[in-house]
Design a protein that fits this description.
By secondary structure, the chain is α/β, with parallel strands linked by helices. It is built from 13 helices and 18 strands. The structure holds flavin-adenine dinucleotide (FAD).
C-alpha cells in the first residue's frame, strides 16, 4: 500500500496525513475549503495537549483558559480553576496549523470537493473536483456531514446534535457552560484569542430551532455579551448512541473513517477535537503497521469503549434527578460546597478524568462530599472564608 487518499483536511485527516507522509507514503489530502472557520468551540482539553504538545508550544494565536463557570437551569453559579488549562483555538488557525504540518511532512494538499468514492475494485476510485483519481486506500475524514459511505450507514438523527451559535468579536477570560431544565444539551461561551464562540447544542429533532435560538439569545443577554459584529453559525455534531459506537462499521478492506465521520465524539460534552486527532493518529499507525484491520479494535482500546459508557449515561446526566433536584443543578451546588467534588470536576473539565473510572471515584468520595456539604451549610463562614483566601468565590 503506497498511495493514500484522504478526504477531509480537518484535524482527523490532517494529522493522519502528516503521520503517513512522514513515514514515506504518498498521501493526498482533498479538502473543499482547506483551513476554514468551522463552527466549533475550538477547546482542546489536557489529554489533547498531553498527546500533541505542539498544540500548546507553537506560536499560533490561541487562548489559554484556566477558569470555568457552571450555571444551573435555576441560575446557580459555580466558578472554579481547572486542574489543567483548556487551550482554545479559532478553527481556521488550528486547521491551518495541522495542514501546514501535513504539507511539511510531504502530503499533497488539494483544494477540491470529493463527490464519489468507489471501494469495490482492487484500487479505490474517487472523483475529486470532477476528475477521476485512484489510490490504494482511502481515509474518510470529511466530518459529521460526510455523505461518502462505502459499506456503512449514515449517522441517524439519534446520533447527531444540532448546534447554533455566534462568533462574537469581544474578549473574555472565563469559559462558561449553562445547563437548562429538562434539556439534553447545554449552552457555552468559549473565549478565543480575539473573539468568543457562544453557542447551544441539543439532540437533533428534540427542540424546535426557534426554541434553541430563544435560549441562546437569553444566555447572551444574561451574560451581558455585547453582540456588535456577531456572526451566526449552525452545524451538526455527532452525539453517538452506545449501539452506534459499538456496532457501526468504520473500516473495510481499502477504506476507513476517522474523526466525526467515525462518530468519534464525546456524547456528553461534544468534545471531538481530541478524538479526531487520536483516531487519525491510530489509523495512520495501523496502516503503517500493515494492519488496517486492527484499527477499530485499537480505537476501542484507546477511547471508544469509554465513549460508549458515556453514551449510556448522557441522558441521565442532563435529564436525571438526584436528591430531589436536577443532577446538573446538584452538580453546580456541590461544586460550591464540597472541595472534594470540586477537585473531581476540575479534572473532568480539563479532560483528565475518564467516564468509566468517574463512577468509582464518585462513589468512593460520596461520604466526604456529604460531610463537606453539611459542614459548608452549617458553618458557611468557615468554608467560604477558605475559598475567598484561595481566590474562589462561591455563589450558590
Ligand atoms: C458548534 C460546535 C462546537 C464544537 N466545540 C468543540 C470544542 O470546543 N472542543 C472539541 O473538542 N470539539 C468541539 N466540537 C467538535 C469538533 O468540531 C469536531 O469533532 C472536529 O472538528 C472533528 O474533526 P474532523 O477532522 O473529524 O472533521 P471536520 O473538522 O469537520 O473536518 C472535515 C473536513 O472535511 C472537509 N470536507 C467535507 N466534505 C468534503 C468533501 N466531500 N470533499 C472534500 N472535503 C470535504 C471539510 O471542508 C472539513 O475541512 C464542536 C463542534 C461543533 C459543531
Amino acid at each position: 500500500m503506497k498511495e493514500i487518499a484522504i478526504v477531509g483536511g480537518g484535524p482527523a485527516g490532517a494529522l493522519c496525513g502528516e503521520r503517513l507522509a512522514s513515514r514515506g507514503l504518498d498521501v493526498t489530502i482533498f479538502d473543499e475549503r482547506l483551513a476554514w472557520e468551522k463552527p466549533c468551540g475550538g477547546g482542546l482539553t489536557h489529554k489533547a495537549i498531553e498527546a500533541y504538545p505542539f498544540l500548546l508550544d507553537g506560536s499560533q494565536p490561541k487562548k489559554i483558559v484556566r477558569t470555568a463557570e457552571l450555571i444551573s437551569g435555576g441560575g446557580h453559579r459555580a466558578r472554579f480553576e481547572m486542574s489543567q488549562p483548556i487551550v482554545i483555538y479559532a478553527r481556521k488557525v488550528l486547521n491551518g496549523l495541522l495542514l501546514d504540518r501535513a504539507a511539511a511532512a510531504g502530503c499533497r494538499i488539494e483544494r477540491s470537493r470529493v463527490t464519489s468514492v468507489d471501494t469495490a475494485g482492487d484500487s479505490v476510485r474517487l472523483t475529486a473536483g470532477g476528475e477521476q483519481r485512484r489510490s490504494d486506500f482511502v481515509v474518510l475524514a470529511a466530518g459529521a456531514r460526510n455523505q461518502l459511505l462505502p459499506e456503512t450507514t449514515a449517522l441517524g438523527a439519534m446520533d447527531l446534535e444540532v448546534t447554533l451559535g455566534y462568533f462574537v468579536p469581544t474578549q473574555e477570560e472565563i469559559l462558561k457552560v449553562k445547563f437548562l431544565k429538562e434539556f439534553e444539551g447545554y449552552l457555552w461561551s468559549f473565549p478565543r484569542a480575539d473573539h468568543l464562540s457562544v453557542g447551544i447544542c441539543a439532540k437533533l429533532g428534540q427542540n424546535p430551532t426557534q426554541e434553541l435560538r430563544g435560549h441562546l439569545d437569553n444566555f447572551v443577554r444574561e451574560e451581558g455579551i455585547r453582540m456588535d459584529g456577531a456572526q451566526f453559525y449552525s452545524h451538526v455534531l455527532p452525539s453517538p448512541e452506545a449501539a452506534t459506537i459499538r456496532g457501526r462499521r468504520i473500516a473495510g478492506k481499502n477504506w476507513a473513517m476517522a474523526g466525526d465521520a467515525a462518530a468519534c465524539v464525546d456524547p456528553v460534552t461534544g468534545e471531538g477535537l481530541y478524538y479526531a486527532l487520536r483516531s487519525g493518529d491510530l489509523l495512520a499507525q495501523a496502516l503503517l503497521d500493515g494492519q488496517p484491520q486492527a484499527y477499530p479494535e485499537r480505537l476501542r482500546a484507546a477511547f471508544s469503549a469509554d465513549l460508549e459508557f458515556a453514551a449510556k449515561i448522557a441522558r441521565r446526566i442532563f435529564r436525571g434527578n438526584f436528591l430531589g433536584g436536577a443532577i446538573t443543578t446538584r452538580m453546580v451546588q456541590m461544586l460550591n460546597h464540597s472541595p472534594a467534588f470540586r477537585d473531581l470536576m476540575r479534572d473532568v473539565f480539563s479532560g483528565s478524568q475518564d467516564y468509566r473510572s468517574l463512577k468509582g471515584r464518585l462513589w468512593n468520595q460520596l461520604g466526604v462530599t456529604f460531610v463537606e456539604i453539611t459542614r459548608s451549610l452549617l458553618f458557611p463562614r468557615g468554608i467560604f472564608g477558605a475559598q475567598r483566601a484561595a481566590g474562589r468565590e462561591p455563589q450558590s
